[in-house]
Prior knowledge:
There is one protein chain. Helices cover about 35% and strands about 5% of the residues. The protein has helices at about 1-5, 25-30, 35-40, 40-45, 60-65, 70-75, and strands at about 20, 55. It has a domain at about 1-75. The termini are far apart. Mean pLDDT is about 85; it is low at about 95-105. The chain contains 6 helices and 2 strands, in the order H-E-H-H-H-E-H-H. It is mostly helical.
Amino acid sequence: MLNAYLEANIELVDREHVPAVTLDFLKNAYPWARKLLDNPEFRKEMGIDIGDCWPVIVAGYVVHSLDRSADEVRQTPYRPRSGDEFFPARDPDVEEETTSPSPPAR
């Protein structure tokens, strides 16, 4: 999707200012890919094989980018911040309480 916008000369996310994330972060963000992320060859193919933190454009950054006016999307790449991996964004300095989902109403 990002490449399609780039083909139209629209940079959705400012790639120079993407927060670095860890392998554990990626495994939590994409639990269906945990086994893939444990594979060193897969990580190398994805460009996350050297070091312990990498600038990865996660889906939340793209959603935040598109949650702006059409003119702003066309004119200015979105600068993601830590917490923007969620939509709506979460303050990374606030510990969120985890609760079980409420039972369905009858």
